[in-house]
Write a structure and sequence with these properties.
alpha+beta, 23% strand, six-stranded mixed β-sheet, 19 strands, binds fe (ii) ion, 6 helices, globular
């Protein structure tokens, strides 16, 4: 039987599995979630003819994966077409239209990720070839502008490296709740994680931002805000929070079969509900320059 044969839409508020006082709802959802959960990144890949115009069959194949794992990799025909219309069209097919125009984004809200020289972007790790620790995107955004959907579209891979690790944030939730529901309780507190202000040349570009790691949104879905970076991140000093964060970091650095790893190839796009991810370091050469487009959305993938 195909692992994706019983798609589930996102949970509703009634009997919400993320309600810490409702063990029965959690147990039922957990069992469905883990039943036939794919353990091979290859199962996430959907080959398509034209990522701009998915057929109904291709669309449903992507959606069913996103319902199960909160992510899918759409693989278009090999090639290095740098047209930004490709990821934009792909996202909009899944209801992803409201782009976050962050500072690094181009005028159209699409961010080009590649190694840059001395301009200001070069002081931000995404625009270098250095590794990036586990995170969800926009963890420093204000609470009302959280990033729910994320699309990473690869125009061309590096000569070496540039691998992404991917982990469904609902799997991270299950891991921690199974260890101790108090870990989740601690990580849902609104002051649990504080990101320091972004100050450049004495000017504050963004104030410090506090917020929860896990939150349940009005549509009943689970959102995660997280960075494994340690520099200046302030965690609540209480014992339970410290243990919860340590447990999460151990899980993220483990060889869990739930952690997928892939080097995105030209024409491949990761579409996801802002799952946890990292990136290994990489090297470009004269003929191989890693270039990705990053599209951050305020919406989740429709129907998940
Ligand atoms: Fe990211």
């Amino acid at each position: 039987m195909n692992n994706f044969s019983s798609p589930q839409a996102g949970p509703m508020m009634k009997d919400n599995p993320f309600d810490l006082d409702n063990d029965a709802a959690y147990a039922a959802w957990r069992e469905r979630k883990l039943d036939g959960y794919p353990l091979d990144v290859g199962e996430l890949i959907v080959e398509v003819n034209d990522p701009r115009q998915l057929t109904t069959t291709e669309f449903e194949a992507v959606l069913v994966r996103c319902r199960k794992t909160n992510m899918a990799i759409v693989a278009g025909p090999a090639g290095e077409d740098p047209d930004k219309a490709i990821p934009r069209a792909l996202g909009s097919r899944f209801g992803l239209t409201r782009l976050d125009c962050n500072r690094g984004a181009d005028d159209d809200g699409v961010t080009t990720l590649k190694v840059v020289g001395n301009e200001w972007r070069g002081s931000y790790i995404p625009y270098t070839n250095r590794p990036i620790h586990w995170h969800t995107d926009g963890y420093y955004n204000r609470q009302e502008n959280q990033i729910r959907g994320l699309l990473l579209y690869c125009v061309s891979p590096a000569a070496r490296g540039g691998e992404n690790a991917l982990l469904d944030h609902e799997i991270a939730y299950i891991h921690l709740r199974d260890m101790d529901p108090d870990y989740i309780r601690a990580l849902m507190r609104p002051e649990v994680m504080t990101i320091p202000p972004n100050v450049e040349g004495g000017i504050e570009l963004r104030p410090a931002r506090s917020g929860p790691v896990f939150s349940v949104l009005s549509d009943g879905t689970l959102h995660m805000r997280y960075t494994a970076r340690t520099r200046s991140i302030e965690w609540s000093p209480d014992h339970v929070t410290q243990k919860a964060v340590a447990a999460l970091n151990i899980f993220l650095s483990s060889a869990s079969p739930h952690i997928y790893r892939a080097i995105m190839q030209g024409g491949q796009g990761l579409i996801c509900n802002n799952v946890l991810h990292d990136r290994s370091g990489f090297d470009d050469d004269e003929t191989h320059t890693r270039q990705l487009y990053r599209l951050r959305y305020y919406q989740r993938i429709a129907g998940t």
